[in-house]
Amino acid sequence: MRITRLELKAFGPFTDRTLEFGPGLHIVHGPNEAGKSSTLRALKAWLFGFPERTHDNFLHANEQLLVGGCLESEDGRELAFYRRKKRKADILDPEGNPLETAALAAFLPIAEQAVFESLHGLSHEDLIRGGEDILAQKGEVGQALFSAGAGISSLRGVLAGLESEADVLFLARGKREINEAVAAYKDTQKIVREATLSSRDWHELNNGLAEAQKSLRAIEARHGEKDKRRRQLERILLLLPQLALRNVLRRQLADLGEVVVVPDDFSTRRQECERALHSLTRREADLALKHAQREKMIEPSPYQMVLDAEEAIEDLHQRLGGYNTAREDLPKREGMRISSKREAAEFLRMVRQDISLDQVEHLRPVSGRRKIIGHLATRHEGLQQGLAQTEKDLRDIQREIGEIEGELALLPQARDAAGLNQACRIARKGGAIDEDLAAKARQVEEKKRTCMQTVDRLALWSGGLEQFLSLRLPLVETVRKYESAFQVHEMRQRDIHKERERLLKNLAKVQADIRRHETSGSTPTEEELVLIRNQRDRGWELLRRQWLAGEDLAGEDVAFGKDLPLPEAYEKKVALADTVADRLRHEADRVQAFAALRTEQQSLNEALADLEKDATRNNLAFTALDTEWRTLWQLCAVTPLAPQEMLAWLGEAAALRHSADELQSNERELARKSGERQELKIALTRALEALSEEIPAETDELDPLLLHGETLLSHLSALEDKRRRLLEKRSDLQREAVLMKGKQAGFSQDMSAWRLEWREVVADLGGEREIHPAEAGDLLDNLHSCFAKLKEAEDLQKRIDGMTRDTSRFEEASQALAQKIAPGLMGQPAGQIVAQLKDLLKKARKDITLRTQHLKEVEEAAEMARLLAGEREDLEHRLAELCRLAGRVLPEELETAEKRSAQYRSLADRLLQTENTLIEGAGGLSLAELEAQAGKIDPDELPAEIARLSQEIEQELAPEGKHLSELIGEKRTRLRQMDGNAKAAEAAEQGARLLARLRRLSERYIQLKVAGYVLKSEIERFRSENQTPVLTITSRYFSELTLGSFSGLLTDENDQGEPVLVGVRPNGARVLVERMSSGTRDQLYLALRLASLEWRLAGRHEPMPFILDDILVNADDARSRAALKILGGLAAKTQVILFTHHRRIVEEALRQAAVSQLQVHELGA
Length: 1165
What we know:
Blueprint: E1 2-11, E2 14-20, E3 25-29, H1 36-48, E4 66-72, E5 78-84, E6 91-92, H2 101-105, H3 113-120, E7 121-123, H4 124-137, H5 141-150, H6 155-169, H7 177-194, H8 199-256, H9 266-296, H10 304-308, H11 310-351, H12 364-368, H13 370-410, H14 418-429, H15 433-457, H16 465-469, H17 476-519, H18 526-548, H19 556-561, H20 566-586, H21 588-632, H22 643-690, H23 703-761, H24 763-766, H25 773-821, H26 830-885, H27 894-921, H28 927-935, H29 942-978, H30 980-1041, E8 1048-1053, E9 1059-1064, E10 1070-1072, H31 1078-1098, E11 1106-1109, H32 1117-1130, E12 1136-1140, H33 1143-1151, E13 1158-1162
Parallel strand pairs: 3-12, 3-13, 7-11, 11-12
Antiparallel strand pairs: 1-2, 1-4, 4-5, 5-6, 8-9, 9-10
């Protein structure tokens, strides 16, 4: 069976994702979080059903989870089905209809997921556990083979668990659960036997106990009544003072009359209100005094005119700095203007000396053409350089064309190497065929030597390999059938032997009992009694014939009496018959026992005779079976051993046949490869001859001829490349020469046009003389500097005129403002006037600030007065409320009302407390009932009455009750000691529980021991049947996985004589598994699993998908390649699906040439 399609309709992170699985090796790759593990869980859920709880419902709800796919059987039948997460009817056909489980079972015979994962699955964790288990087993062969074959990675742990659990239950010497349970059961049986009871004594004690209990109940009733009366009197005596206090408090409350009870915080509220009113009065007086003082400070300001002109003064003060600066800068500016005019004249003379500054304006248009002149000058230089470079390039091109034509003339004639190129490519496509053939030849020789050695070592056979391969050996099933038949005979033989020993033992015992009976005196039997009675009757018949008939007895009487007269002889026979009958009656038990012994002796002799017949038949059947068994092997010329040993021999023979098949396959592959190499050599030789090349010396190898051909190809290719490059370069140079000539003519035309334009542009700049482009820039710079200096002189003149105008206006404004505000400042310099006006403004601002502050304080005082008035109103309202609460009294009467309320509250609280104390001590009585009881009793007589009751209770009733209690306790103790019924029943119940526990523990112990024995037997059987073929395959895989670090595996014996696995180095050194690294042990377990799988497939088992999960996560690149190569080979026999999240595994697989059929499924795409 194989999986052809997996549909992840709704599972985990997937929606409508389909994976197609064709033949070969499949790698399902997904980086972290891509869904690799989800895909593996989906595959298992599809085949075996969803688990009860799943974590793959984070995207799709449980009822939406759906996984499907298609299975294909070995005979080509297909089954497409889907599975939902449901408890029933979870398998559906493609149309959504329920599908019977039997339909799936026809394709998937393994119904349990755990069994499938063990046999056809392997994860990284299983690999690690398998390596650890090999270490724990110390390489024991049977356990290693069984673990790998069954997919159980903790077999030693299973065996150890069975043994340890059994040891916990029972040890022959020690304290274990079964031992302890047996001891406890014996103890309970002893208790049951010893627990006896005298009926009369028990009844006497029981009656005495009942009378004592009755007397104790009567004493306890009297004691309770007396104690109740005493406690009642004590309570009244204790509460009399509180009752008197209660009456006094009630009278005091009545004397107070009607009282208005004020709230608890009344005093606090009153005092706070009075203090607040007193404080408010003092604050109002202080505020009125401050208000009067501030109003006196508010008078008209003497600086009002200054404040009115504040903006003008500030403006003049800000302009004062500019005014002073202008007065200082005016002489400097005038000097700078004169200097600029002089420099402008100098620059003009550098341009043209025939005009003055007054005439320079007609040159301004020339200055405006500065960019054009510069452009023309630059263009002139470019045209000159371009023309010169073009002429030089043209000369160089013509020289190179001549050199190329010379090289082309020296090259040999071209040859067509297409045939040689194709032959070399085909030969190289075949890979390192010489190395492959050498390796395969060595492999064939090695395999042939191994097969020959194996056939030489093969016991029971003498002959060659070809003869052995032609043998028609019996099938394993046939040998197993004979093994079962021999085991049946052997078991029957053992049963007969055991039964014979048992019968003989019983017979010896019965004969010993018979001899013991006979030694202790003869024991009469019924047969003896019948014989004697017959003799008696014969004597009577003789007497009757003699006495009544008068017959002559003719000597019969002498024969009967034996020398005694007939009457005496008859009388003696009668007495003997009576004696035997009496003994039979009196010794009936002994007679019965003796008869039973005789009967049992006869039965045992008959059973022994029947058993001997069975033994004879069984021996004859065994002889016939043995003859048939030997006849089965006659055609093979093999003298067979026991079937169990021949199964192991067949295993070795099957492994030899497997190796021989591989040898033949390798020889065919070697012959095919040799033929391919010869064909490639012929093709290369013909291609070389077509080129008239010398052929290298003839050898079997392809590489020398291929190397010669490739070298020639490289040489010819280099010549053709050189020829092509030279021709292409000559063509390019010729085209370039034509372009250069055209370019040269263009430069000449451009130079003529430039000269005409240049003369027109610079005509005014030079006057009558010719201007060279190189000096045009300097002339234009000088002319520009001349105009710049003239502009600078003009700007300076404008600045001088403006500064003069500003200083005049500033002086006029300062005089006018001084005349308006401070006439005394008139006639002073403008700067001094402005400074003094600024001082007056500062004084005015300070005065207005003080006045503003006083006004603000007056306003704040008015606001405070308003707030105080509101506060007084609130306090008066609160005081009125307190008067109302106190019973509408006047404010000055509040304190008196408060004191009366406090006195009333204190008396009421004390009264309440007293009544609570009385209620607590009244024992459930009301206050009225308590007063009534107290009123009936004379307080002076209470102590004497209480003392009398206490004396009666403590000196009479208590001692008598104590005596009766001790008597009851003594009788109960004696009854418990004598009461064997309950004790025996208890012990019997405990014994039953112990017996049930013993049965359960014994059954579990037997199960554990039988399970351990069966498991060990199966391990040994599996080892004997599969050791040789499986280890042969494992050895090869192990060598490949370890990259030749180990040449293979062998079996050796440890100190206990048990077979163990050892690794073999290439130099023959043996390495125990304990000395292997953990990674090597993991690879050993992987080799065992793969070999077991291959051996099962060789035994024509139904192929099943082999599912691997990240088993190469810890392997390096080299060992990963080796493992992938093995998996690729295994994929040709059964489907292999490898899940991984490592990209390097995919890349290694893609680079593997041996993996012919590889399919990579990317989950992250």
